[in-house]
Amino acid sequence: MTLSKDTDSSHFNAFDASSAQHSAEIITIRPEAETLTRQRLPYFVGVSKATVGSQGISMNLVIIPPGGAAEPHFHRDYETAIYLLKGRVETRYGQGLKQSVINEAGDFIFIPPGVPHQPFNLSTDEPAQAIVARNDPNEQENVVLYDPTSES
Fold first, then answer.
1. Of 90, 98, 97, nearest to 69 (Cα)?
2. Partners of residue 120 on adjacent β-strands
3. Per-residue model confidence as pLDDT tens digits over 37-58
4. What is the pTM of this model?
């Protein structure tokens, strides 16, 4: 994604991460295209080291298509906070993904580092949408795919 500064509104359409790290400017990101993640979900990358030069946080919009699910995974060494904007999602988690929680729009969700999980969109008609924040500026660097059948 390239961002450039719009001086009137502080929006960016072209970006140079090296200059942003030393800037005292507020940066606005409007993602133009989705990115497919290791979890096989469409992301709209917002705040990250690559987009704004952040040092300790990333924040993105994730969409789970109708009836869709992420690949089972966990996040090595960092926490995940999620705000569910739209939809109902069942997240299977823990060893063998044997535990489950259902969340709906308006819920805040916390996932500790290293906890295997797999979210499923419970709707077959509407996408689920969530804002995902992590204390890792390279949010895909520490995503580890998880095989729930490898544990007894």
1. 90
2. 69, 90
3. 777 787 788 898 888 999 999 9
4. 0.78
